[in-house]
Amino acid sequence: MNKIILTVVSAILFYLIFAIYSDVNIIQNYFLNIDLSYIFPIFSILLFSQFIRSLSQKFILKKLDIEINVKDSFILFLTGLSMIITPGGSGQIIKSHFLKEKFNEPIPKSLPLVFVERFVDLIVISIIIFITLFVVGFLFESVIAIILSLIMMIFFLSLITNKKILGITFKIFSKIKFFKNIFPDESLFSESFQNIFKPKILFISSLMILVSFILEGIIIYFGFLSFGVDLGVIESIQFYYTSLLYGALSFVPAGLGITEGSLATLLSKEISSIALITSIIIFIRLTTIWFSSSLGMLVAYFQIYRKN
Questions:
Q1: Contact criterion met (CB below 8 Å) for 220 and 238
Q2: How many CB atoms sit inside 10 A of residue 11's CB?
Q3: Which of 55, 80, 144, 235 could form a disulfide with 231 if both were Cys (CB 3.0 to 4.6 A apart)?
Q4: In terms of DSSP H, where are the helices of the chain?
C-alpha cells in the first residue's frame, strides 16, 4: 500500500511540474473550455471496454477450472485495476488473493491468469501499432516499440517454456519472503500455466482484448476532440499505444513519465503548443489509467469492507 501511495504522490508531483513547465494558466484555460459532450461517451465506453476484458478473464479462469459468474468476474477485474499502477501491472496478482478469499481457489492455481493477461496485452497492442503503420504511415518510434515488445515476449516465452530456467526462477523468487508466500506450490502453478498458455486460448483471448483496445482507442480519439484537436482515429491510436507500450516495457509504475514523455514527443510532430499537448496528456491519463485505478481501489475497498 505504501508503494501505491508513493506512486500516486509521485504522479501528482510529476503532473504539477509538467503543468508549471507548460504554463499553468494556459492549461487551466484549456480545461475550462473543454468540450464536455465527450465526457459521458468516454466513461461509458471505458466501462464497457473493461466489461469485455472481464469476459476474457472469465474465459481464461474457466480453462483453469475456476467457474465464476459474469458479475463476479467483472467485480474481480475491477478489483485488479486497483493495482494497475504497479510496475507492469504486476500488482494485479491481488486478483488471486480475492479468488482464494471468496472462492477458496489456491493462489498458485489462478496466478498464471495475470501473466497470460499481460502477455496478451503485449501481443494485441503490438498488432494494433503494426497495423497503424500501414494505414497512417511509418513511424520510427512505433517500430522500435514493436521490436522491444517482441524481445520481451520472446524472453517471456523462453522463460516459461524451459522447465530448467523456470525452476531456477522459482528458486530465486522462493528466497524472497513476499514471493515465497505467493508461490508455495511450484507444480500447481506450472500445471495451471500449461493449461492456459495454449495457442487456441491465447487467440480467443486476444480477439476479445483486441475489441477492448479498439474501444479504448476511440476513447483516446474523443480525448483529443475534447480539446478541439482532430488527428484522426488511427493516428491518435498510433501515438497513444506507442507511448503506452514504452511505458509498459519500462516497468515504471503506471509508466509514469515514460508514457507521458513519449506521447508528448509524438504529439509535438502535430501540435505546436506545449500547453495544449500537456492538457491533452493529463486529460487522457486521468480518464484512463487514473480513473480505472481509482475505481478499482473503490471496488477493492468495498469488497474488503463487506467481508469485515
A1: no
A2: 21
A3: 235
A4: 2-22, 24-32, 39-63, 70-81, 94-103, 107-110, 112-135, 140-161, 163-174, 177-182, 186-196, 199-225, 233-250, 258-267, 274-285, 291-307
How far is residue 268 CA from its own chain's centroid?
A: 24
118: Cβ contacts below 8 Å, ≥ 6 apart: 88, 89, 90
Residue 231 has pLDDT above 70, yes or no: yes
**Whole-prediction pTM value?**
0.86
**Is 40 strand, coil or helix?**
helix
Do 257 and 265 touch, CB atoms closer than 8 A?
Answer: no
4-35 confidence digits (pLDDT tens) = 555 555 656 666 666 666 677 888 888 899 99
Task: List the one residue out of 37, 21, 39 whose CA is nearest residue 284.
Answer: 39
User: What torsion, rounded to 10 degrees, do the Cα atoms 13, 16, 21, 23 define?
Assistant: -170
DSSP 286: I
Which residue in the block uniquely carries the three cell numbers 494494433? Answer: 128
Tens of pLDDT, residues 22-69 = 677 888 888 899 999 999 999 999 999 999 999 999 999 999 888 899
Percent of the residues in the chain that have a pLDDT greater than 70, as a whole number: 79
Contact 133, 142 (CB under 8 A): yes
